[in-house]
Write a structure and sequence with these properties.
Structural class: alpha/beta
Strand content: 25-35%
Shape: globular
Largest sheet: 6 strands, mixed
Amino acid sequence: MSSPLLAVRGVNTFYGKIQALRGVDVEINQGEIVTIIGANGAGKSTLMMTVFGSPRAREGQVWFDGKDITRLPIHDIARLRIAQSPEGRRIFPRMTVYENLQMGASIDGYAHFAEDLEKMFTLFPRLKERAAQRGGTLSGGEQQMLAIARALMSRPRLLMLDEPSLGLAPLIVKQIFGAIHDLNAQQGLTVFLVEQNAFHALKLAHRGYVMVNGVITMSGTGRELLARPEVRAAYLEGGH
């Protein structure tokens, strides 16, 4: 068995004196979609940010493609072709859609800009219609599409998505999860997904982890976790 593309080993992360992650172990293999589900404030976003080096893991290691990246500067982590679409989208609101996508391609030195731009416009046709529009004037769903497309412009080996469905209408959520599925199925893109919408996330993911108060309490295939009564009771009842 080859080693995982991303491995988080025994990671403890703190904000000042407050411990946010406790001995977290997570693995993501090449070509997988892996999701972390959990309630608000469980530490899911902190885990994703720890992979990116902000905040740093105080103990434990983060490995990417066999290399220890725990202490690497953030810009060097980005150069390894790990791309993040953060919670709250964080696009450049004063820049046009086209300029936002240019920013995403800068890490790749614009080597494949025209080709990749065409791919993004095929994946999210709405962005093509809005190419000359400022990012800040887009709807929430369009901004989320732009955030994902901007991350994809860097040709990532690992795409990290933090709460891509947050605050979006069900139809848009379906579109975005459909796009993630297609990218994985057609291009073998490896995806690390943090998501409060457990139902969508576990349906999409090959494997999942459940996080409670900074601790991984359960793991399994997406299907296994969807079927577990404690997961259904905590994250799925009422909604589905």
